[in-house]
Amino acid sequence: MAKLDPAQFVRDVRTEVAKVTWPSRKETLITTGLVLAMSSLAAVFFLVVDQAVAFAMRGVFGLG
Could you identify which of 2, 23, 32, 64 might form a hypothetical disulfide with 27, taking C-beta atoms 3.0 to 4.6 angstroms apart as the criterion? Predict the structure, then answer.
């Protein structure tokens, strides 16, 4: 059975974190902007589709 050694765990974590390639500030800002833009586009798309379906349902069933 593996022995629990918190100090070794912390050393291993520090070693692994050192291997990570972190994005630059510019890359982070660009990616964040793209995520916000795509989320906005998806929200507008689903709003338009929802309104079109609601309009069609009102036409078919005469409700609302």
Answer: 23
